[in-house]
Design goal:
Shape: elongated
Order of helices and strands: EHEHEE
Helix content: 10-25%
Low-confidence stretches: none
Strand content: 25-35%
Radius of gyration: 15 Å
Largest sheet: 4 strands, mixed
Mean pLDDT: 81
Amino acid sequence: VTWQLSFEADPIGKKANSTAWKRGIAMAAQEALLLKQLRQFDGPLAISASFHLPRPRSAAKTAKAITRPGGFDLAKIVDDGLRGIIYPSTRGGQIVRCDIEKKWVDGPGSVLVAIWEEA
């Protein structure tokens, strides 16, 4: 079973915190639990998250998204948003594989998270 969670994401500025993104991931996960009648995972999990961030006006079209937050920060945002919903809050070691992608897009930002049980 693979879960796909998606929501629109506001840009994170230098002084802004990531609470809105954590909350968006948590709300998408709760909605999937309720509407799709999915269950919490008990075994090892793999997570793939793709962050599409609005391109800053000052960034050239060919520029790479090498600004804050970095990949490790984004992985922590995903973990915090899913903990206690997709897997029990007492099992932080359940994620055994994590792939994070960050890129700039023209237009509104979004986050897509896929979660599946790792064999």
